[in-house]
Amino acid sequence: MSLTGSAPSHFMPPQASQIAVHVDYLYGFLLVASFVSCVMVIGGLIYFAVKYRRKAEDEKTPYISHNSTLEFLWSFIPFLIFMAVFAWGWWVYHEMRTMPTDALEIAVQGQKWSWAFTYKNGRSSGSEFYVPVGQDVRLVMASTDVIHSFYLPAFRTKQDVVPGRYSNIWFKAEQEGDYQVFCAEYCGDQHSGMKAKMHVVSREKYEEWLGSEPYKDLQPVEVGRKVYQSRCVACHNLTDQKNVGPGWKGIFGKMEKLEGGTEVLVDENYLRESILDPNAKIVLGFPRGVMPTQAGQLSEQEIMGVIELIKSLK
Amino acid sequence: MSSASGKNYLNETTGLWSWLTTLDHKRIGILYMIAVMTFFAIGGTFAMLIRWELFSVGKNIMDAKQYNQVMTFHGAIMVFMVIIPGIPAFLGNFILPLQLGAKDVAFPRVNLMSWYCLLTGAGIAFFSLFYNGVDTGWTFYTPYSISTQNGTILMVVGAFIIGFSSILTGLNFIVTVHKLRAPGMSFWRMPLFIWALYSTALLQILATPVLAITLLLLTCERVLGVGIFDPKLGGDPVLFQHFFWFYSHPAVYIMILPAMGVVSELITAFSHKTIFGYKAIALSSVGIAAVSFFVWGHHMFVSGQSEVAGILFSFITMLVGVPTAIKVFNWTATLYRGSVRFDSPLLFALGFLFLFTIGGVTGIILAVVGVDVHFHDTYFVVAHFHYVMVGGTLMAIMGGIYYWFPKMFGRLVNEFWARISFVLIFVGFNVTFFPQFILGAMGMPRRYYDYLPEYQSLNRISSVGAWTIGTGFLIGLGVIIHGMKRGKIAGPNPWGAKTLEWQTSSPPPHENFLVQPVVTAGPYEYR
Fold first, then answer.
1. Which residue of A73, A85, A98 is the best one to mutate when testing the B interface, meaning the one whose CB has the most B CBs within 10 A?
2. What does B377-412 look like in DSSP terms, one character per residue?
3. What is the per-residue pLDDT across B248-272, written as a single tens digit (0 to 9) for each?
4. Is CATH 2.60.120.430 the classification given to domain A104-211?
5. Which CATH number fits domain A20-54+62-97: 1.10.287.90, 3.40.50.970, 3.40.50.150, 1.10.10.10?
6. Is this prediction's ipTM beyond 0.85?
7. How far is B361 from chain A (nearest CA, A)?
8. May I ask the CATH class of domain B25-503?
9. Does B239 touch chain A (CB under 8 A)?
């Protein structure tokens, strides 16, 4: 899997959005200016230190207390440079944060540790979502638990997703491809697993995807596999190894020990309850309160699919 | 001189109890040295574990939950227990009264109490390990820190108490500087280390209470369910970030200003030349301290604070760059036509300048708001602040230890091994953290337990560098212990330096000066 689909150039991800090129110009300027300043200061330092190294223990040094002209210049010139890059950065930020009025809007929901996307026509999607190339897109983002941050490196943009309010981010994709979404604000155990993939496609392909039935002609177990990939993979796996939550292989039909010593048979009803009300019964050895409820997030078809998937993993 | 009679602060009284109840600022300085070095060893061990886990994609030695705890402990220990007390409370305690020509700090009992505050706070913070640890990161961002079920409260209470250690030390230094200067020592005749400690002390007493209040509110919210930061209770999580950074940004200068003071001393002492632009360096310390109160929002460019706020904070942050640049230029100019001797303290000072310059220019890059949106919360930020805090502050601490070591223990360290330790730390540091700038530019977010395969090669380089640093510090520890026991006798002023602490014997007598020194000129009269 690649961050971007193509190799990063000059150590930056590709410039896939309208703003990326502006950010990179400014960053390029800052890099060059930084490099020149470092060479001047560090070079001067090493040069003076070596040239004026002590040759005799009783050497006398000149008493140079200050030089007003020099000191004014080396205060004022950096000040001018700082003001210039500040103003340039302001302009880029202004372009980045001025929301377009007629953008395509997608609702984004962040929760530990997955992203979900809902379109205006009701089409919803898990960790993979689609946007059309060349169109302004605005994401209206909310979190159900803690602070997350929606980060698209190839688009040079990022915004924290704060519970209790909506945050906005907008972009215009300039080239088709698959782009990585990260969570950039620390949010717990699977913070680094909270990823999504954004597919930038042509308008036709986008329309086709938007109108498609996500689970058409799929068997329940295949539906379950899709749901697993988009919502469950950060914490569960398909082996019998424990991750944040239990691995799914071989748990169906097993007796599990619960907190408090009672036992429960893992059957369809237990799995359903664990998906919709995860804290109702906690298996011994797992922390309480980690898994968020999936009630209202998964359809009956999807819940059944997940249960079928678990049943199939013997 | 007291050394003739063989009495000095180390052997004036003996026994563990005499150390634990001492009111002598020099002994308290040594107590801080032991505490800080111990915490540094623990925090450093956590750093090694982090780099081990990040050596390869996937799980290496620990699971995600353990990693997050290790990351939290590394950050919290290094910030609250090592870098903040490192220079002021350890080197400052020992040197400040000596440089002022005073017998002690103004409030010796308060001074001892602040050491016990540090130990108590640290003890409580470590105790959280028995309550499932802490996994919030050292920033305790809400609402995560409210919802996560473990020993967060203990860590927060620990940080609260350590904060008092910092406040009390700051208070002590301010009063000492105002009231206990030697006759003839006007403000403009104070060494630059004193100016730096004075500016730091102002920050400590003005900013740290805000952290204390914030942590108290967080505790109220967790224990009593009072809605302040948690949106579920009607609170605002971004408010916490404002409060937190209102302390923690000035805290960054609590960490770096004293380091700048140490470097001023080292540069002038090892070039045997008066400092260039004394007033500019002194006033820029105060200037940085003042402006640092108004830049906290640059930690929050993508947090959801208003765009106007973001632009204002970007502007004010640029203003901090100016006095910082002035200092760097002044140090460079001091070397011009100097008589430079490359002992290990100067190597660390030059290392400081090299790394701090890189940390500084990348700070400017991050202050440019349109660019920071990409770099925020990536490894670029991690690299930047390690260049400033480790490359800056820790290099200065090491330089300061080797510089004042003869004064503290009356002996010289083994110069050869001290230089080896410098080279390993310096090279290892760049190998560790320079690749992290690139990782950040490539988009790797910070606080990641696992990463995409394309980040692996740079992470491996970084891990190898970290182990090199670890080796360098272990050798440094050996150099210090060896120097204490077997180092060559140093004499009162082995470097030929001019500030007052070098005019008394090494180690100094209990009362510092047998004859009250009288000051008739500036601190760096190399003529």
1. A85
2. TBHHHHHHHHHHIIIIIIHHHHHHHHHHHHHHHSB-
3. 999 999 999 999 999 999 999 999 9
4. no
5. 1.10.287.90
6. yes
7. 6
8. mainly alpha
9. no
